[in-house]
Design goal:
416 residues; mainly alpha; Growth Hormone, Chain: A; 16 helices; globular
């Protein structure tokens, strides 16, 4: 058994471990590298990257809740968490072979689909452990603090890559800048980081695992019956619907934020990384500050305040022309993005009991991914029609507004 403090630190360490994958691979480093060094065309890169993220999101939406239910039935949460952590780390390491060549476009896209799918599926089982590491009246605090730890992990990893490999004439490990080796090394760094810092959490579970003879097909049938009840006038279903919509907007923002900064404001790799660090700093601070408010005023109010702020700031971010103002406004978005993510998780955790945690957070993943192709798809279509990244990014605000309106109709679950 862990002491309370050690238990919280262990849980937070996994967020610290996995966040660089999203920060470095999906948003700031390889997304921009894909655009500048492999594709060479901002609009084409946005479209291709959007399709890759959309396909991955569809797979997560289908697999996540079914595996979550199966894990509940067979007490196999630890197994799936370990498996997908290892697979996503391997995927990150394989970005080392993403040489700056148009011939590798398909390789990178397939790698994005697979590694991101494994990464998100690991998150299903990690999130389901939230109630095991905290009492329900302090769920908001742990969720926010662990999310803040994740942002800090992303910052440290980005700093290592920036000053150790990108913004230096003598990259560490004796690497040369030929064939973008100093950029490609970010993949193996993320892989090593993920494995190393996730070990305390992965090894913290009891070695004794109960087993049952329930088969996958039985779990699927049971899940489909549960799904019908959840979305039949159920308050839980209303929240999942609201989150599905506003998360579409946030996921699209994450996937295309680096591409937008590079294409519209012509930011180089160093500027992109600095921008990424700034957003992670503000997001971490926001998640930490609002973690205390979550348990005091409830996660619903935190999400509403944060979404309203993102909508207003996001609008001004899209109409400005000056790079300096973009950096200021774009960074300030992070202060409210962190709380939306952390409080959404704590909101969902209030519906969990010991028998359904995998299924609940499988549904949580489904709500964040089942229509996640719509955001990238709409953005890709908009960019194609208007030949403008700026207009395409404007589609994100639509999802945030609709999600907010649906959230207003949701009744918050009681804190036990």
């Amino acid at each position: 058994m862990f002491s309370k403090t050690k238990s919280w630190i262990t849980y937070c360490l996994y967020d610290w471990a996995n966040s660089p994958f999203a920060t470095v691979i999906i948003t700031f480093i390889f997304a921009v590298y894909f655009q500048k060094a492999i594709v060479g065309d901002p609009e084409k890169a946005s479209i291709l990257w959007g399709w890759a993220i959309a396909i991955s999101s569809f797979l997560i939406a289908i697999i996540g809740p079914i595996l979550g239910k199966f894990a509940d039935d067979n007490y196999s949460h630890r197994y799936w968490l370990r498996l997908f952590t290892v697979l996503s780390s391997i995927g990150a390491a394989l970005f080392w072979f993403a040489y700056p060549s148009e011939d590798l476009i398909l390789y990178v896209l397939v790698l994005v689909v697979l590694s991101n799918t494994f990464f998100e599926l690991a998150g299903v089982f990690y999130n389901s452990m939230l109630i095991s590491f905290s009492s329900k009246n302090k769920i908001g605090r742990l969720s926010g603090q662990s999310w803040a730890a994740g942002y800090m992990g992303g910052i440290v990893c980005l700093l290592i890559i920036l000053f150790g490999f990108v913004q230096t004439d003598n990259p560490l490990l004796g690497l040369e800048k030929h064939n973008a080796a100093n950029i490609r090394i970010a993949g193996p760094i993320v892989a090593l980081w993920f494995i190393l810092f996730s070990l305390p959490f992965i090894l913290s579970f009891s070695k004794k695992i109960e087993k049952s003879n329930i088969k996958l097909k039985d779990s699927i049938m049971s899940f489909l019956l549960d799904l019908k009840n959840i979305f039949k006038g159920n308050n839980k279903g209303k929240f999942l619907l609201a989150r599905m919509i506003y998360t579409d907007g946030l996921n699209t923002l994450f996937a295309f934020g680096g591409l937008y900064a590079a294409g519209t404001f012509d930011m180089n790799f160093s500027e992109i990384i600095i921008f990424g660090i700034a957003i992670n700093v503000t997001a971490g601070i926001g998640a930490l500050v609002f973690s205390y408010m979550d348990d005091l005023i409830g996660p619903k109010r935190v999400i509403i305040i944060s979404l309203l702020s993102i909508i207003v700031i996001g609008f001004f971010t899209l109409i400005i022309e000056d790079k300096s103002y973009f950096l200021i406004l774009g960074s300030s978005l992070g202060f409210f993005i962190g709380p939306v993510q952390a409080s959404s998780r704590s909101f969902m955790a209030r519906y969990v009991d010991s028998e359904n945690k995998g299924e609940i957070f499988g549904l949580f993943a489904l709500s964040g991914k089942v229509t996640a192709f719509l955001g990238p798809l709409l953005l890709s279509i908009t960019v194609y029609v208007f030949d403008s990244q700026r207009v395409g990014m404007g589609s994100i605000i639509i999802f945030l507004i609709l999600g907010l309106l649906f959230l207003l109709r949701v009744k918050e679950p009681r804190t036990l």
